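Task: sequence in, structure out. Protein: PhzF family phenazine biosynthesis protein.
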Amino acid sequence: MTDYDVLRVFCAPNGGYGNELGVVRDGSLLPDREDRQALAAKLGFSETVFVDDPERGVIDIYTPSVRLPFAGYPCVGVAWLLDVPELVTPAGVVGVRLDGEFSWIEARAEWAPPRTFRRYGSAAEVDDLSVPPAGEWVYAWAWEDEPAGRIRARGFPGRGDGVDEDEATGAAALLLTERLGRALNISQGAGSQILTAPQPHGWVELGGRVVLER
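Result:
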């Protein structure tokens, strides 16, 4: 079995929760896309990242079923792990900064895959949702405190690949931030925290806590 690290990304203030991420630090061990896709499917994380150049930050991202040109929480996690000034993805160059307990990336919302956004009237309604049928990638959300920018959200990939709900999804947070045009503090899943802030010229910052699980 290829060696890999497991991170939790977008953790709560106490270090709990967060979305698990698999990271193969030496991507040269599996250079072929088919082999990478097979490993990502076997591991079963929402995403698995292969690092092709740790010094330049060149990475390759896979869900259990598809390769992605960009994804938010994998970039936040790998940025923390590699401690590099930028990441190079097929979608473009992602800016990186580490700020105390938070790791931040800067990316463009158009790099994110499309999502179906469903707004609800209260956080309780979001909490009570059942997993929808496979099909659309659904991001369900509601204001917890609109003046403060606090949002309750849940993400349902709808891919039918065994990941019924994502604990924390950076790409969806990027898209929602662009749509609302303001900084957000998102509570997603069982207790994960995602921070965002719109930047000039169409960029969005995305940040959170990262923990090395193993």
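The first strand starts at residue 5 and ends at 11.
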